[in-house]
Design goal:
It is a single chain. The chain is mainly beta. It has one helix and ten strands, in the order E-E-E-H-E-E-E-E-E-E-E. The protein has a four-stranded antiparallel β-sheet, with no helix packed on it. The longest helix is centred in the N-terminal third of the chain and has 8 residues. The chain starts with 6 loop residues before the first strand and ends with a strand. The model has no long low-confidence stretch (mean pLDDT about 90).
Length: about 130
């Protein structure tokens, strides 16, 4: 029963600096293996610069990984990874720009991309979403 609501992904196959998209509960989910530069950049953003203030640390269990429901919080379109003004996620439908922490930075979207519930295996190679 519980497995129906989970998605298991082997993170060891995702190169640093790349994003994959998987489906969980009928929704696309971005899994990004973040670079050191991305981590440092996102952690340096002041909360005052964010429309929906959340620290990078609040949005990630492990700083090397960004895991977000890939549904724009404006009207539900699917953003494009590694695009936009912040090289995070860009929704071309109405121009919302998210950073590599999935936080809204510019455009009409009111909220950050949702972080789904997830855990890592003990060796950090397997992510279980849900």
């Amino acid at each position: 029963y519980h497995c129906l609501y989970q998605r298991r992904v082997h993170g060891g196959h995702i190169p640093v600096g790349k994003t994959i998209t998987v489906v969980w509960q009928g929704k696309p989910v971005f899994i990004r293996h973040r670079t050191e530069h991305e981590i440092e950049t996102e952690r340096a953003v002041p909360l005052s610069a964010l429309p929906d203030p959340q620290t990078d640390e609040e949005r990630s269990i492990d700083p090397n990984w960004g895991i977000y429901v890939a549904v724009c919080t404006h009207l539900g379109c699917v953003p494009i990874p590694e695009q936009g003004s912040y090289k995070g996620y860009f929704c071309p439908c109405h121009g919302s720009h998210y950073d590599n922490s999935g936080r809204i930075r510019k455009g009409p979207a009111p909220l950050n991309l949702k972080v789904p519930p997830y855990v890592f295996s003990d060796d950090m190679q397997l992510v279980v979403i849900g």
